Amino acid sequence: xxxxxxxxxxxxxxxxxxxGDTVEKVLEVTGIAKVAKWLLGEDCGCDERKxxxxxxxxxxxxxCLEENEFSYLNEWFNKNTDRVTPIEQVELFKIHSRVFQVxxxxxxxxxxxxERINDLRKVYNQYKDESK
Length: 132
Hints:
The chain has 132 residues and is an all-alpha fold. The chain is built from seven helices and no strands. It is elongated and about 60 Å long. The mean pLDDT is 84.
């Protein structure tokens, strides 16, 4: 059974779970996937490679905030401050590490701290918007 052809816009709009999905998008949009299937047949191994790349290089997915984490972020973001104390950095990085499943080291780099805070703000805002 033939697959329905997707438009370039549909291909690009699909959410990528990892690098494999992104590579597949590039190959489909450029037409290379069609050539590979023509040369190698319908089972060219692309699905297996895509799955392996997605497994090796997944795009990070945020875990759900726990109630105490949401409460802490709610309090912290409502302070409207542009300063982060060392104690606050420890707590914010602890939340960021768990939610994004990464290992965070304390840092004196302002842009690094801001990047993690912005990540948390996006997750926090989703929760805040849902509670309205």
